[in-house]
Specification:
This protein has about 400 residues and is α/β, with parallel strands linked by helices. It has two domains: about 10-240, Alpha-Beta Barrel (TIM Barrel), CATH 3.20.20; about 260-405, 2-Layer Sandwich (Beta-Lactamase). It is about 40% helix and about 20% strand. The chain is built from 13 helices and 16 strands. The protein has helices at about 45-50, 55-75, 90, 105-110, 130-140, 160-165, 175-180, 185-200, 210-220, 245-285, 295-305, 345-355, 395-405, and strands at about 10-20, 25-35, 40-45, 80-85, 120-125, 145-150, 170, 205, 225, 310-315, 325, 330-335, 360, 365, 375-380, 385-395. The strands form two sheets. An eight-stranded mixed beta barrel has the order 1-2-4-5-6-7-8-9. Helix 8 (about 185-200) packs across helix 9 (about 210-220), helix 9 packs across helix 10 (about 245-285) and helix 10 packs across helix 13. The longest helix is centred in the middle third of the chain and has 39 residues, at about 245-285. The chain starts with 10 loop residues before the first strand and ends with a helix. About 30% of the residues are buried.
Amino acid sequence: MRNANIPSDKIIAHFQPILSADTKEVYAYEVLGRYVTDNGTVQSLGPFFTDPNTSHEEALRVDRIVKRYAFKKYAEEKRDEYLFINIRLAWLLPYATNPEEMLTLQLLEEFSIAPEKLVIEITEEEFNANEEYIRAIVHYKKIGCRIALDDYGKSASNIDRLAKLQPDIIKINIDYIHKSERSYHYREYLRTLATFADSVGIEVLYEGVETERQLDICISSKGRFYQGFLIAVPQPSMRDVVINSSVFSALIETEYKAIQNKAIFAENVRNSLDVQVERFLLENPFDSEKISSDAYLVTLLNELPEVKRVYLCSRQGVQLSNNIERHLEDVIFREYKNRNWAWRGYFHESLKAFAMGKKSCLSNVYRDFVTKEQMFTYYHAINDDVFLFVDISKDTERMKAYAAG
């Protein structure tokens, strides 16, 4: 598209549905600028807004036409869903001292739209924690609008930005979602972002979802909102929108069932190990003053053919034995005695379990620092002061062996 003045009567808006996992229905629509070409086709205004040759004034003019078109359509169609609109921070600066005069607020009043139905999207890459910008953004929040931080993670994410802006929603950068198909690093990062957001009361929206694999990864990473061409393309009206609801609902249900199955599977593994370990302890009572811990663990490892390594720790996290590991057909010793593992997540999990009166538990899956292999750790309290730790590779056949007893 040539960067020239676009006739006002050629500028329109389309609306892309955003679905919510809790209802499996449309939660909101994002307003996206479009223009009608001379031959009647509809094209995106995205390249126009991102073109460095587009002047500030022209971009603002076109954006205002898009917003007016969208708000008018929203009112005419008597919608009740949320409406996402994009705002450039540079456009807020003139209203730093009089934010109540911002054009968006005038449009809300003109079309009798409740501010609570509006979600203001601000791109994280543009965000500048300048007090003048903050004042305008805070005014939006004060009158009831929600704030979304778009493209989260695209640039060097700054916690100061998040703390100052205090958004209600973060939209995960599309590149992370696409790259998550090829790399577990991105998949784990998505989960970390969602966990962080949940801990500080921010909802997560995954945008740019284009394949079932991407949607499956996003759903398993946890997050409430989903948007992308797989789910629904931008459409000229919010009435009778076409949504790929069957795929969305099916994958949501599949994930719910997977969570249940994982819990049942993990409990079966724990119960199976409980039986074997408790039988071993009954037949071979542990007495640290009379026996060698390493020799004791070698005997135990031989009783647990699917286990990768075993070791003992104190309640304080100090390792009391070497690592006794299975390597092919051999048993090897790795010197980790007196290391302290109280800082590891799985050790915290074990302490919580034992504090609740459980004699054993199975950790969440994690990756080994050295091999990067996915692992589970099983913990068993031999007595009040000595804990047994058993590492098992998240190998389907090995885990199945334990789950089957």
